[in-house]
Write a structure and sequence with these properties.
By secondary structure, the protein is α+β, with helices and mostly antiparallel strands. The chain is built from 8 helices and 10 strands.
Length: about 280
């Protein structure tokens, strides 16, 4: 059994859905299905019960899942130890400024426990670079949010967070239970500087051109609203600070947390980082 095929199997076993597993593995579904069928042939047993109601592990599949996870973890440890012996035990991680994400905290703890000899270097960026230095070659991997230009990058979604409108606490709209983007159409918004990724700018401006104070960091967004009475978008679960409030937006797509890295990067420290991130953000 090849390690690659075992990774395919673990993805399907954890997702219990071939389509989601294929998306997680960054591949199409037909070759994934063929690989699993070949694995079942080699194992001499069915690993999944397939029915109109979904996919479930068989008894043989449950045993293989436990063994496959152990084998893949051992192989990953071997790769990391070899990388460390070759002097490559450093990983630079890009993060958006003012990030207090509980998932990132869990990831940091889990990665340190798995790889105590690896030095993690943090590159914190403002809101003007959603790739956190990936496109500029400043980092190995980024914990960030979609959307942005993904050319030359691999991007894996970790979580989706609802967003709301950031308002002064005494704003007339602050008393509403929820808002729509149309409610904010005639207001001034904080905006990012010229040259910011247009996909990123458009999302945080609600899909429309806006005018207002130019901001580069989370604190500047909050201060722009507090001092100018402008509006903008923020995560619904963020604490906005004194004098501010967040009202849910009914027609705004969620903000998607992702881990991103450059295509073709085979650094074993990076591969392990992505795998641990998937688990940390599921908890």
């Amino acid at each position: 059994m090849e390690l690659r095929t075992l990774r395919y199997f673990v993805a399907v076993a954890e997702e219990l859905h071939f389509g989601r597993a294929a998306a997680r593995l960054h591949m199409s579904q037909p070759p994934l299905s063929r690989a699993i069928k070949q694995l079942e042939t080699e194992a001499g047993a069915l690993l999944f019960d397939r029915s109109s109601s979904g996919v479930a592990l068989t008894a043989a599949g449950t045993v293989l899942l436990e063994e496959a996870r152990a084998l893949l973890a051992h192989a990953e440890r071997a790769r990391v130890r070899m990388a460390a012996a070759a002097g490559a035990a450093t990983l630079t991680v890009g993060i958006l400024g003012d990030s207090t994400d509980a998932g990132a905290a869990r990831l940091a703890g889990a990665y340190r426990r798995r790889h105590p000899g690896v030095e993690i270097r943090i590159h914190e960026t403002g809101l003007t670079d959603p790739t956190c230095g990936l496109h500029a070659g400043l980092v190995d991997v980024a914990l960030t949010r979609r959307p942005f230009d993904e050319t030359g990058l691999c991007v894996h979604e970790l979580r989706a967070d609802p967003v709301g409108a950031l308002l002064r606490a005494d704003d007339p709209l602050a008393r509403r239970e929820h808002l729509t983007l149309a409610d904010l159409a005639d207001r001034g918004w904080f905006v990012f500087p010229a040259g910011t990724d247009p996909l990123w700018q458009s999302y945080w401006n609600g899909g429309e051109p806006r005018e207002g104070p130019v901001v580069r960091a989370v604190q500047e967004c909050r201060q722009a609203v507090l001092w100018n009475g402008t509006v903008g978008l923020t995560l619904l679960n963020h604490r906005p600070g004194r004098g501010l409030t967040v009202v849910p937006l009914a027609d705004m797509a969620p903000s998607r947390v992702v881990v991103a890295w450059r295509e073709g990067d085979t650094n074993p420290l990076l591969r392990s980082f992505v795998q641990i991130a998937e688990a940390a953000y599921r908890d």
